[in-house]
Write a structure and sequence with these properties.
The protein is an alpha+beta fold. It has five helices and four strands. A hairpin with a 4-residue loop joins strand 1 and strand 2. The longest helix is centred in the N-terminal third of the chain and has 41 residues.
């Protein structure tokens, strides 16, 4: 018995193979389709961006935004002016600190030495750090106490009572006191 031979590749042998021109045509078609799809996608994306730009421009040109923009511009101008003012004030403050002979702490220390009932009419400081105080006191002892307190405070050197006069109308004493700041 003779066995019949079976060829398993027979169905594929009769099939036609693609020719090289057909391969080029199919590849070119796929490339063209991809280009067209990419172009369509980009056109749609561009249209959406243009639409969004139009919406944003409409919003930015609205009356509310224009008012806010004007207010912001004015605030920026005011802030720039305030910056200039601050610089000027700081320069003035620095100048005052340099030339300040009587500062707050010095006045507080002098006030702590003042006895009860005594009051100042004037307090003057010269460029040479000389201090002149004029005031009224209920007694000579109060003036002497002020002189002693100022000497003991450590703020002054050479504190002297220049004169004391009794005011005949009020019965109090007017005094002049001088000293030198240390």
């Amino acid at each position: 018995m003779i066995m019949q031979q079976i060829n398993l590749f027979n169905p594929y042998l009769n099939k036609k193979k693609l020719q090289p021109n057909q391969r080029i045509m199919i590849g070119g078609g796929i490339v063209v389709a991809l280009i067209i799809l990419s172009l369509a996608f980009n056109l749609i994306a561009a249209m959406m961006v243009r639409s969004e730009i139009g919406k944003q421009e409409a919003y930015l040109s609205s009356e509310v935004v224009q008012k806010d923009r004007a207010a912001l511009t004015q605030a920026q101008v005011d802030l720039a002016k305030m910056g200039t003012y601050l610089t000027t004030v700081n320069e003035i403050a620095q100048g005052l600190k340099k030339s300040d002979k009587l500062n707050r702490s010095l006045l507080d220390q002098i006030a702590a030495t003042v006895p009860a009932g005594l009051s100042f009419q004037s307090l003057a400081v010269t460029e040479q750090k000389s201090v002149a105080i004029q005031g009224t006191a209920p007694s000579r002892d109060t003036v002497a106490e002020l002189q002693h307190n100022l000497t003991q405070s450590g703020l002054f050197a050479n504190v002297q009572v220049v004169n004391i006069n009794r005011d005949s109308g009020s019965g109090s004493y007017k005094f002049n006191l001088e000293g030198t700041l240390k």
